[in-house]
Amino acid sequence: MERRSFVKLGILSLPSLALGQSTEVNGNGLFVRSGADRFGETHSLGFSTISFKVCSADTGGGMFTMEHDNLGKGGPNRHMHPDQDEWLFAMEGEFQVEVGKNRMILKPGDSILMPRKVPHVWAQVSDKPGKLLIAFTPAGRMEAFFRDFGKTGKLPSESAVLSSYGIERVGPPLQL
């Protein structure tokens, strides 16, 4: 087989990157396009679009990473994770964040680590939609939580349901 035909055949056999699918890179990494979901799926909690970037199975349960896009004003209830650290990276918009008793504003390029067992809450506060990259480590059941409730378009309100995913609600959302 000619080299040109071999290269063409190799390129044609790759999964389509234009369709938002992820592609393993020579078995040494994982490539996911900006704004795309790891599996080409759609997830929403009604107030944002969620794209899975790095899933639990990709890291042996070590990490789950997702992108929250098109976030309107507001955010989740004050909560904590007994077993996961949560990291936020502001990509677009501004976010008021409270970790323990400390309050700050995240602007694009800023990040914050919210340690396990420490109550925290965040809210998108800018007039234009915001975008966050969020990572949980270890992954725990966070991917399952966003997969399960990303189908319904709304968050559960029952404490027992939340705790089954490793989330404890400890207060209301931030007042804007």
UniProtKB/TrEMBL annotation:
It comes from the Bacteria. Residues 75-134 form the Cupin type-2 domain. This is Cupin domain-containing protein. It comes from Terriglobus albidus.
